[in-house]
């Protein structure tokens, strides 16, 4: 079931260009191996397309990602979705959907040729000739490390050899992110365990609190989701009553503690959406962050062991801004779209604070507005 859900990853609002040039709108999801899914906005089964079946596809309001014939390093020709990296007399492309690869379009040709450490010298010798300041088979070129940066430098030298005023007209354009802003509220339970020497047992201080926050979210057509969240937490906690014993083990007093903390947290997260973009779907992710203790005040109350007297406050404290606590977190929840640009999320979050026994578990409700 999980594998089936993952195969239907979330997409972004977009379109495909049919072979006759018509535009069909919907939600476009980028898959591996140059496959795209088009989910109709009105619902229904998705359509599956490969590069040879369409002229291209677009995401959000970006220009279309075109399908082109690529002569691959294996010697076979294949139609692929490609993105421009640098355009000129000789141009450089890469495969779309962040699948990597460098593709050379020689001057006057429509076919793209796959550049690899093995094919580089052959292709440069065949297609980058005629420039006095650039000799493809020179010692400099043969010893140059194969990388995207170095290939771009070579093509810049080649293009300027024929036009000294030439400037690159395209930068690498990866598949776009859909950006959103969110507001959330959360009910959480915090707990802190302590091996208390005087009680001769482990004491757990716990309590329910509230958390409010703002978040920035970015979503890819592949279903990948990134987020940055800032939160403010108000968390009261208290311990159960426990016996304080003397060095000889005799019960001396009953004690309880309580504290109220105000925390400010900044966290980043990454995860994946699982499900169709126009329907409620699942989300799983993980993250990390740091928390600043803005203020904490607490007290210790005590009474004689076995007594029915009211507890008396024996100690109070107040601290603030003295701790920065890193944490790791895991998330899982449901996403429900409301129209094309709004979303409601219900997410369970577990946070474990590193180097301490403090942890929280909460249920977060969030509203997210997407720019596009």
Unreliable stretches:
1-8
Main-sheet strand order equals: 11-12-13-15-16-18-19-20
Strand content: over 45%
The description of the largest β-sheet is:
8 strands, antiparallel, barrel
Shape field: elongated
Helix content: under 10%
Radius of gyration: 30 Å
End-to-end separation: 31 Å
Number of strands: 20
How are the secondary structure elements laid out?
Layout lengths: L1 H6 L4 E6 L5 E9 L3 E5 L7 E3 L6 E4 L5 E7 L5 E10 L4 E5 L6 E4 L6 E4 L4 H8 L11 H5 L4 H15 L15 E19 L4 E19 L4 E15 L3 E4 L5 E24 L6 E24 L7 E8 L4 E15 L3 E12 L4 E13 L2
Parallel strand pairs: 6-10
Antiparallel strand pairs: 1-2, 1-5, 2-3, 3-4, 5-6, 6-7, 7-8, 8-9, 9-10, 11-12, 11-20, 12-13, 13-15, 14-15, 15-16, 16-17, 16-18, 18-19, 19-20
Describe the 3D structure.
The model is unreliable at 1-8 (pLDDT under 50). A hairpin with a 6-residue loop joins strand 9 and strand 10. This protein has an eight-stranded antiparallel beta barrel with strand order 11-12-13-15-16-18-19-20. The chain is mostly beta strands and 372 residues long. Helices cover 9% and strands 56% of the residues. The chain has helices spanning 2-7, 120-127, 139-143, 148-162; strands spanning 12-17, 23-31, 35-39, 47-49, 56-59, 65-71, 77-86, 91-95, 102-105, 112-115, 178-196, 201-219, 224-238, 242-245, 251-274, 281-304, 312-319, 324-338, 342-353, 358-370. It starts with a helix and ends with a strand. It is built from four helices and 20 strands.
